[in-house]
Amino acid sequence: MDIIASKPPAAAHPWRHRRKCVERRLPVPMRVALSALALGLPLCAEVCNPKDLQGPYGFQLSGETTISGESKPIANIGRIVFAEDGKSSGYSTVMFAGFLLGNPITGIYEAHWDCTISWSLQDDSGAFQHFSGVATSDGKRVDFSQTDPGGAQHGTMARTSDECKVADLRNEYAFTLSGSTTPMLPGESSNTVAAKGLIHADENGIFKLALSDNLAAMTDVTIAVDAGCIVDIELTLPAAGSATAIPTTLRGVLTDAGKEILAIETDPGAMVSATFTAR
Question: Which pTM does this prediction carry?
Answer without folding.
Answer: 0.82
